Amino acid sequence: MHLIVFSSPRAGMDEEYNTWYTEVHIPDMLEIPGVKSCTRLRAQPVGGQPPEFTYQADYDIDGDAGAVLKEIKDRSTDGRIRLSPSIDPAAMKVTVWESL
Description:
Elements: E1 2-9, H1 14-30, E2 35-42, E3 55-61, H2 65-78, E4 87-97
Antiparallel strand pairs: 1-3, 1-4, 2-3
């Protein structure tokens, strides 16, 4: 399974967002049982149109996606997953994908 997260930083906060994502968020996520790895991608314009989201994170997860999502929620609630003020909450989408 893959947990795919689309997101964008707040205007003018790219550097802070990327530092937080690399140094804080990915290590927090990799501590969750079942989260094996993370690959990040930056979107590029297509046909002159800007992308809907600036970044994509692909978390390779092993096992039950529902259990991983519950653990993410629990850790976000109790502070073990720390969010940055640099992330734009209105520009974020979380999806789960399975391999065929």
